[in-house]
Amino acid sequence: MMRLIWLHIAILVAGSALLIGDPAAAQRHPFAVGGQEAISNATGLAGLILAWQTKFHTELQQAARALSNNPNALGVFLASCFAYGVFHAAGPGHGKAVLTSYMIANETALRRGLALTLLAALFQGFVAIGLVSIAALLFKATSSQMQNSTHVIELLSYVAIFMLGARLTWLKASALVAILRPSSIKDTNRFSCAAIGDSLHAHDSNCGHIHAPDPTQVAGPDFYWRDAIATIIAAGLRPCSGAILILIFTLSQNMFVAGILATLAMSLGAAVTTSLIAIIAVYAKGAAIQWSGVNSHRGLIISKSIEVVAALLVVSLGAILLIGIAATQTGT
Amino acid sequence: MADNRGAQAHPHVWVAVRSEIVFGDDGQILGLRHAWEFDEMYSAFAIQGLGKNGKLPTQTELEPLAKTNIESLSEFEYFTFAKQNNEKKTFSSPQNVTLDVNEKKILTMRFFLPLAAPLSAKKPFSFQVYDPTYFVSFGLEKQKPVTLSKAPAGCSLSLLDPTPLVAADNQKLSEAFFQNMSPGADFGVKLATRAIVACP
Q1: Mean pLDDT in residue range A42-50
Q2: For A166-182, what is the mean pLDDT?
């Protein structure tokens, strides 16, 4: 039992580390670009990452400057965008928290998880490209108008995170409850219900429990894709400031195509980092289950509990982000 | 307030600062006249969609943006942190706020930031410009970043530089590896130059 508690604490700590990275009640920055950026303490590992991110952003700016004078500098520009993506994604952020929690909450095969990560990163890039293409290129929107549309997207993405979390929590909690019921009752009831063979009796208080969603029942292909798409949207809907800046800048320099390529390079870079984090998450869960005994009843309870906690993390992340928006709205 | 907000990811906006310390007729310090020049990426973002027929936006067309910027700046203490006698000095609402863009498409924000109460210049007065959230990286302009306006004779101005950015960065990083990977608490303030003026 102690091990179980420690596991939960460990996951909560890891989860809150990701959560801290999000803007709970910060004001809108006067020179904000796109959505609110993640906030992190500039100490320890976060500070080191911060220093690297700064370095790569500076290099990216120099490469963009070089490109506006010399079209041959495209390769360098794209490479620096890729590097920027790798390091930008290394900081705390809600997208990674959502993806990682989703992968912990689901018995997702690593390969599918990685595909999910890549798609989320690319989706985020496409949102930025779409936003700038439609708003700036088509409608000649001003930066404040673009800010407003980014805020709407931001709100939508937080709602998506909350809903995804709520759904995962419901599914995972039901699965856990189903397991926690003493197995003897389950067996006899299944037998007795089947024996009765009467449709009216199938819904009595004892048999009702069998209707709790079992992961093996709901893990069909439809279920997977619907949730996977929801995860991609929840994790990737909010475009990143760096991409918006680069797109607008290249647009103003009449090299929008280079900006689109740069955004995609950045997305791929971000996918590399997020994948690493996802791999760590999946292996950590595997190790935790291994440690507690793979096939034991306790092992099953532990793995299901981990999933519930991960799902709860997604739901609280969504709630915190939405509260953050509400605080910003009323605070200004 | 500013302290518990933490650092805001890493800089996305760069600003080159030029500031004038403005004196009154009686030799007191009235406030600071800032000119903040933005980097080309943020400039491009800010002027996006403004300006007619492919022309650069005029000061009038930039007025609404200037207003929005200065309003949100008030919540961040205008990123200007002044001290005298080791005591924090506050500012009142900025005046003559303008944004303009030059032929190189570079945006500059100008405003006069009056001190809440004029200060005697007999004791050293100092200020720094930085973003505690480090979303904006403020740096002083290379040539004459800080000047004095209508200062009484004999006033001296000095700039107290932090370790140069790159050197500080590298040093921090290498030290960091040995000191539990901790490059220090607040990049924004640690990289900020302090301007100090003292009059006889």
Answers
A1: 59
A2: 85
- CB B35 within 8 Å of CB B108: yes
CB B11 within 8 A of CB A50: no
**pLDDT beyond 80 at A243:** yes
Q: Domain range for residue A306?
A: 42-331
Determine, yes or no, domain membership for A37: no
The pLDDT value recorded for residue A154 is: 84
> Using the beta-carbon criterion (under 8 Å), do A50 and B187 form an inter-chain contact?
yes
Token pair 């500039």 in the structure block, residue:
A42
Eight-state DSSP code of residue A330: H
Q: Domain boundaries in chain B?
A: 3-198
In the β-sheet with B125-129, what is the strand arrangement from edge to edge? Answer: B87-89, B80-84, B125-129, B194-198, B156-160
Q: Do B48 and A248 touch (CB under 8 A)?
A: yes
- Identity at B159, one-letter amino acid code: L
* pLDDT of A128: 92
CB of A32 within 8 Å of a chain B CB? The answer is yes
Cα–Cα distance, B76 to A33 (Å, whole number): 16
Average of per-residue pLDDT values in chain B: 81
Report the alpha-carbon distance of residue B43 to residue B26 in Å, rounded: 39
- Domain count for chain A: 1
Give residues 137 to 166 of B whose Cβ lies within 8 Å of A.
137
Within a domain: residue A101? Answer: yes
Instruction: Indicate whether A34 belongs to any domain.
Output: no
Joined together, the tokens standing for residue A37 give 């950026």
Which ranges in chain A belong to alpha helices (H)? 2-20, 44-69, 74-88, 94-105, 110-131, 143-180, 183-196, 215-218, 221-236, 241-252, 256-291, 297-331
Answer yes or no: is A28 within a domain: no
Question: Is B45 in Cβ contact with A143 (below 8 Å)?
Answer: yes
ipTM score of the complex?
0.71
Q: Give the closest-approach CA distance of A42 to chain B in angstroms.
A: 5
